Amino acid sequence: MQVVRLSEGSALSGLPVLRKPTLISGGNTVLAQNASHRLKKTMMCRGCREILGLRIFIRGPLAIPFRLRGIGLSEMHPNTCTLCEKRFKGIMKSAQIRQPITILFADLRNYTLLSNTIEPQEMTDILGQFYEAAAEAVWERDGIINKLIGDAVLALFNFPFRREKHVANAVEAAIELQRKCKDQGIEIGVGVHTGETLIGEVGQYVRDFTVIGPVVNLAARLQGAAAPGEILVTDSVLEDMGSLLPDVQERTLELKGIAEQVKAYALR
To answer: Rounded distance, CA 42 to CA 65, Å?
Structure first.
């Protein structure tokens, strides 16, 4: 195994301490950290070990030199570091890479109405419950929370943990997330799509680590079209899952920004 040594001449030396790109929504995101308490913690970043064979320590005394170089715990997953978020191009030799990714978008329904009719603290509590439920469902199935965008969650499967069953993991996470939210009286809609996607750094002076492309756009549109309590998946997801999704309702949708009609399948 390769041990990363933080010498001045190394690829990791002189890393800039950048603004964390993962969270857009604000202070409510801290509430989702409770979800990590039930996850088995690792001493090293699992993503770096699996993809690059690097031993990046994120806990314990051996993590101190990495923290001094600006590499700490990621908020995307409690067992990953911030290296991909801060220096993706340096470690992957490209600003973006293309690979199969399964995208899960989830959105809290009636957010604007709720915000105007209940106290801000109560709205904060609801968002916190939603974020925590999403984190639990996603992290337990080797996904990462790439973005919390106000009342929406963007989760990715198959990076940095590359899994043969990443589509099934995403669908199972969506089902579990709906179950958790229903138990708490929270209404959400979920969209899931899979395909070749660009993942990596976007921007030069203000950088963001994220995914871009038609797969991401379609997953977002499906989430918007899903009824409260519903999960919408695409042909690609259904084909990968096969007989594991026997009870689905087929729909033909016209989605904003997508020229052709989209065939989707509803899970409830």
So the answer is: 17
What are the φ/ψ torsions at residue 222 (nearest 5 degrees)?
Answer: -65, -45
In a domain, 85, yes or no: no
- The count of C-alpha atoms lying within 13 angstroms of the C-alpha of 79, restricted to the half-sphere facing its C-beta, is 24
**46 inside domain:** no
Distance, CA of 131 to CA of 144 (rounded, Å): 12
Q: What is the pTM of this model?
A: 0.85
Number of domains in the chain: 1
Classify residue 144 as exposed, middle or buried by CB count within 10 Å of its CB (0-12, 13-18, 19+).
buried
Question: pLDDT digit string (tens) for 12-54?
Answer: 433 333 333 333 333 334 444 566 657 889 999 999 999 999 9
Q: Is 174 exposed, middle or buried (0-12, 13-18, 19+ CB in 10 A)?
A: buried
**CATH of residue 254:** 3.30.70.1230
Whether 235 is in a domain gets the answer: yes
Ramachandran angles phi, psi of 233, nearest 5°: -125, 165
Asked if residue 189 belongs to a domain, the reply is yes
Query: Which residues, 6 or more positions from 154, have their beta carbon under 8 angstroms from its beta carbon?
Result: 103, 104, 105, 145, 146, 147, 148, 210, 211, 216
- Judge contact between 264 and 225, C-beta under 8 A: yes
Question: CA 30, CA 23: separation in Å to the nearest integer?
Answer: 10
Contact 53, 45 (CB under 8 A): no
Domain of 184, in residue numbers: 18-36+93-267
Residue 87 exposed, middle or buried by CB count within 10 Å (0-12, 13-18, 19+)? buried
Model pLDDT for residues 120-158, shown as the tens digit of each residue: 999 999 999 999 999 999 999 999 999 999 899 999 999
Positive or negative: CA dihedral 236, 239, 242, 247: positive
